[in-house]
Design a protein that fits this description.
Blueprint (H helix, E strand, L loop, with lengths): L1 H8 L2 H31 L20 H6 L12 H5 L9 E7 L4 H11 L3 H17 L8 E4 L4 H7 L3 H13 L8 E3 L11 H8 L3 E3 L2 H4 L3 E9 L3 H10 L6 E10 L2
Parallel strand pairs: 1-6, 2-5, 5-6
Antiparallel strand pairs: 3-4
Helix pairs in contact: 1-2, 5-6, 6-8, 9-11
């Protein structure tokens, strides 16, 4: 359109100006790509899922990992295995997980890099990816806001962040739902859940959460977000505290569910 405008109203100089701008734009794009390639040689960008070099248009996760990470598709099935974890334990409206947490899986490597190497952008990125699938399925239709499962303040200080918050903000970017951070608190430090039985896990997290401001949650539908669901004990403890508030409904999503 600019070409014809220049031709009709400015004549030959206008055409030359347009061509000059076009050539300059292409030269700048070429130089940027050249610089990007040069920096990639000095500081290689690596996929956190598999360790391969990222291509120019890839971010944090390579295309192969993006395609290869197995999706559960649980958000399409109300009675899916994640939802069944909470049957007879607490009232959960909807529950789903993005992928399967298994030994050597790419999602496990990604979550490990998020939690223990401090690559917070992974949580944001996978949160966005998963949120697109959830939004397409209408999962967010009646949810009011997002609440990440909180860490105890001492643990969050040591780690420097809460991985569930990173995931929540990624989901929020796509869904448009606000993230509520300070109204639900973790008041007790629980020991690691690794190698514990289901009953031991439940005992380890019983009564560890506290609602600081119940009015924020009254008559609301809350989406609890966590990184990994194993037996569901942490989510159960968290949800049980929220469900004491009048009119509260709780749904749950996580990046992965452990295959028991």
């Amino acid at each position: 359109m600019y070409f014809f405008f220049a031709y009709r109203h400015k004549g030959q100089p206008g055409i030359i100006c347009y061509l000059y701008i076009l050539i300059l734009h292409r030269c700048m794009s070429y130089l940027y790509n050249l610089w990007d390639d040069f920096m990639s040689l000095l500081f290689p960008r690596i996929c956190y899922g598999c360790g391969n070099h990222l291509l120019r248009n890839e971010n944090l996760i390579c295309t192969e990992c993006y395609i290869s990470i197995p999706r559960t598709g649980f958000h399409h099935d109300k009675d899916n295995p994640v939802a069944q974890l909470f049957w007879g334990r607490c009232m959960i409206e909807k529950a789903a997980a993005f992928s399967y947490y298994t030994r050597g899986s790419r999602i496990r490597k990604l979550i490990h890099c998020l939690k223990y190497k401090g690559i917070k952008e992974i949580g944001l990125e996978i949160g966005r990816i998963y949120a697109n699938s959830l939004r397409s399925a209408g999962f967010f239709s009646d949810i009011d806001f997002i609440v990440p499962v909180p860490l105890h303040p001492s643990k969050q200080r040591r780690r420097g962040f809460n991985q569930s918050e990173c995931i929540s903000f990624g989901i929020s970017e796509v869904s448009g739902l606000p993230v509520i951070l300070k109204s639900l608190k973790r008041i007790t430090v629980s020991d690691t859940q690794t190698r514990r039985s289901r009953f031991e896990r439940w005992m380890n997290v019983e009564g560890i959460f506290h609602v600081a401001d119940s009015e924020v949650f009254r008559d609301k539908h809350i989406l609890l977000v966590d990184d990994v669901i194993t037996t569901g004990s942490t989510i159960e403890s968290c949800a049980s505290e929220l469900l004491k508030i009048k009119g509260v409904r709780v749904s749950v999503v996580a990046l992965a569910v452990a295959v028991m």
